[in-house]
Amino acid sequence: MVEPEMAFCDLEGNMNLAEEFLKEVIGDLLENCAADLDFFNKRIEPELLATLHHVVESGFERLTYTEAVKMLESSGEAFEFPVGWGTDLQSEHERWLTEKKVGRPVILTDYPKEIKAFYMRGNEDGKTVRAMDVLAPRIGEIIGGSQREERLDVLENRITESGLPLEPYWWYLDLRRFGSAPHSGFGLGFERLMMYVTGMKNIRDVIPFHRTPGHAEF
């Protein structure tokens, strides 16, 4: 995982960085690895170069989870997995949003708190959190992140609500107890990015080391 964590950064700043980061990485590959990408475009995925250029040149659409669910519910599509407010979106839902509805990458925000981690900052509505997922055409989620909960009392309540004991998280709570600030972060799966920029269909084909029984020493 590539995981930036930024102090004094809210959800808006987190979204901006994620979009700029993805565009910068893919733009560098298009400029400096053109021959390699052309090989994958010819041998693996015929629309690869067009997709990557589209990502770099597009402004990412920003939608709330609630808006996205309404679009999916009124789509008329026969999805394998039912969709409704409070359910976690599946890859088929994410791809429909990016490929059929919007036609470019999408950043989804403000997910229900019940389906997200306790450390994500709660919104004023008491139902959603400041979570963020970047969805890309052809693959779905490629980045996931959030603004973190910096309020000690709210964080303690969220841990308890999640059915977890407070004691093992003493060190995490102390980071808030002795002073904190708004902060955000996200994770970009390296292998998922490699799969996306090469057009490979199986993530096992882009793992940078052999996965065989007894091979890993640590």
Lay out the secondary structure.
Elements: E1 5-7, H1 11-32, H2 34-43, H3 48-57, E2 61-64, H4 65-73, H5 91-102, E3 106-112, E4 128-136, E5 140-147, H6 152-161, H7 170-177, E6 183-188, H8 190-198
Parallel strand pairs: 2-3
Antiparallel strand pairs: 1-6, 3-4, 4-5, 5-6
Helix pairs in contact: 1-3
Short description:
The chain has helices spanning 11-32, 34-43, 48-57, 65-73, 91-102, 152-161, 170-177, 190-198, and strands at 5-7, 61-64, 106-112, 128-136, 140-147, 183-188.
The H/E string reads EHHHEHHEEEHHEH
Residue-averaged pLDDT, rounded? 93
Radius of gyration: 19 Å
Describe the sheet with the most strands.
Answer: 6 strands, mixed
Give the helix tally: 8
The strand line-up of the biggest sheet is 1-6-5-4-3-2
Unreliable segments (pLDDT under 50, ≥5 consecutive)?
Answer: none
Give the overall silhouette.
Answer: globular
Q: How many strands?
A: 6
Q: Approximately what portion of the residues adopt beta-strand conformation?
A: 15-25%
Helix and strand content put the structural class at alpha+beta
Q: In whole angstroms, how far apart are the ends?
A: 18 Å
Considering DSSP H and I runs of 4 or more, what fraction of the residues is helical? 40-55%
